[in-house]
């Protein structure tokens, strides 16, 4: 019997009464593995009301106790790491190694949430005037919400609700309708870790349900990761409704290859960074910029990419899995055809890819283009597939100008043996996350995920210190006490209750 995905409201799993259901499929087979409800508005209202009522109690829970909840949750996530990875693979098609990485990166953020006490420290200045002190307090906002994408169903929800809840808020999570099962299991483990009922709620749906979260007056913040048009819509609609919004959008990440770079390292890293996870990650490298003589390495890059074979999640020799849906595959194939038609050289074509034992999967093989120019659609659009396009630049300055002229600013890298070139690149590039001989420069959670320009709408980024500021507000207190009010005389005692 096919599973019906439950809601998680008031600390209990329950079945939606909705008449609108969505099929959840395994991308490797396109078989239906679950049915997902588009929650009733009344059910979402119930979740928000529960979160609002719970907030009044949760915000008073001592910070160390909230931190201990995160330590318990982290321990459970580690104990169930492999189980979560297998579940994640079943709904995303990711190979097991990619799925394990997805789960582990989420666990790292939960570890950072356990450090919440130091992250919520305010500031104090004594004697700003005579006998007057000023200090700041960091306090939670209320009910926060998160709308997460299909490509990282463990990591990205764990970017959001652990830090928000550790900071004293409550949270309503709306996972992707394509991959809801991992989020439901994350919520179940959170409950087992000791989270009070109502601290986390999970609702499901599509645009109508998202719109209700964006418009509901009791939702204080919205965190989103997804495509550019939807991120722009989320940001505009959420801020129009006076909410604090962080919306992470698309990317076109470039890796600059200098002629003095280590060729073997360049090729190995380019292959993994471009086709890993089927290219379905916002930090994937989708453009290689070969400076001067480095373009001579393209034939060897082609040979290395050709050896990368997609396959089932549990196949040891599979390099990556399928695309998430038939629609995603159609879009990638369209862009590959447009690249050919617009004059790019298709060095390696994965359009006709098939995988034994999975004839109905959404497969696209590794695809490599050379001779690409900025006017071509395969350069301008985010492909979100296992496709790498190669452009050429005559100098480092030309490469920097090319990247800075691109509308996106999520991540970029340079491979070089020259420290001065690396420093010039990191200083002049207008991109939020920069790698030096590192292909995918995703920061660890004690820093923040800092995409720029068209890759991010908002002010405060995900995880790290910026996320704590996103989920909190600062209250400044100025206090004055008078010496004449100090009690005087014998037998004065101070009692401290334990």
From TrEMBL:
Enzyme class name: oxidoreductase
Gene Ontology biological-process annotations: L-valine catabolic process; thymine catabolic process
Entry EC number(s): 1.2.1.27
Cross-referenced SUPFAM superfamilies: ALDH-like (SSF53720)
Entries under Pfam families matching the protein: Aldedh (PF00171)
Family from the record: Belongs to the aldehyde dehydrogenase family.
PANTHER family: MALONATE-SEMIALDEHYDE DEHYDROGENASE, METHYLMALONATE-SEMIALDEHYDE DEHYDROGENASE [ACYLATING], MITOCHONDRIAL
Protein name: methylmalonate-semialdehyde dehydrogenase (CoA acylating)
Organism from which the protein derives: Photobacterium halotolerans
């Amino acid at each position: 019997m096919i599973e019906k995905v439950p809601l998680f409201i008031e600390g209990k799993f329950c079945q939606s009464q909705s008449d609108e259901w969505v099929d959840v499929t395994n991308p490797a087979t396109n078989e239906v593995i679950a049915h997902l409800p588009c929650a009733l508005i009344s059910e979402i209202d119930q979740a928000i009301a529960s979160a609002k009522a719970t907030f009044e109690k949760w915000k008073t829970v001592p910070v160390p106790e909230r931190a201990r909840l995160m330590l318990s949750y982290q321990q459970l996530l580690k104990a169930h790491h492999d189980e979560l990875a297998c579940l994640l693979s079943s709904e995303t098609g990711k190979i097991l190694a990619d799925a394990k990485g997805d789960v582990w990166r989420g666990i790292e953020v939960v570890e950072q949430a356990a450090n919440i006490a130091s992250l919520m420290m305010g500031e104090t200045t004594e004697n700003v005037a005579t006998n007057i002190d000023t200090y700041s307090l960091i306090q939670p906002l209320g009910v926060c919400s998160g709308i997460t994408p299909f490509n990282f169903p463990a990591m990205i929800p764990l970017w959001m609700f652990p830090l928000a809840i550790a900071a004293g808020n409550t949270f309503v999570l709306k996972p992707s309708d394509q991959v809801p099962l991992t989020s439901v299991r994350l919520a179940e483990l959170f409950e087992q870790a000791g989270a009070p009922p109502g601290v986390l709620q999970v609702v499901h749906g599509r645009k109508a349900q998202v719109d209700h979260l964006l418009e509901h007056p009791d939702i204080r913040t919205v965190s989103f990761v997804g495509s550019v048009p939807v991120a722009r819509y989320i940001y505009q609609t959420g801020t129009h409704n006076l909410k604090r919004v962080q919306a992470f959008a698309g990317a076109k990440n470039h890796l600059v290859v200098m002629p003095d770079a280590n060729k073997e390292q360049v090729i190995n890293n380019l292959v993994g960074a471009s086709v890993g996870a089927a290219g379905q990650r916002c930090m994937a490298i989708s453009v290689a910029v070969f400076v001067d003589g480095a373009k001579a390495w393209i034939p060897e890059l082609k040979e290395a990419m050709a050896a990368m074979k997609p396959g089932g999640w549990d196949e040891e020799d599979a390099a990556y899995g399928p695309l998430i849906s038939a629609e995603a595959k159609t879009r990638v194939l369209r862009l590959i055809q447009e690249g050919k038609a617009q004059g790019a050289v298709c060095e390696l074509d994965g359009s006709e890819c098939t995988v034994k034992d999975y004839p109905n999967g959404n497969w696209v093989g590794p695809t490599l283009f050379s001779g690409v120019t900025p006017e071509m659609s395969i350069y301008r659009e985010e492909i979100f597939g296992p496709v790498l396009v190669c452009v050429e630049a005559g100098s480092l300055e030309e490469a920097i100008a090319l990247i800075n002229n691109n509308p996106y600013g999520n991540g970029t890298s340079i491979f070089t043996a020259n420290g001065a070139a690396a420093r010039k690149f990191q200083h002049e590039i207008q991109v939020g996350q920069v790698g030096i001989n590192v292909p995918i420069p995703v920061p660890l959670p004690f820093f923040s995920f800092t995409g720029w320009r068209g890759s991010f709408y908002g002010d405060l980024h995900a995880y790290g210190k910026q996320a704590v500021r996103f989920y909190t507000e600062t209250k400044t207190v100025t206090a004055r006490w008078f010496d004449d009010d100090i009690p005087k005389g014998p037998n004065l005692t101070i009692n401290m209750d334990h």
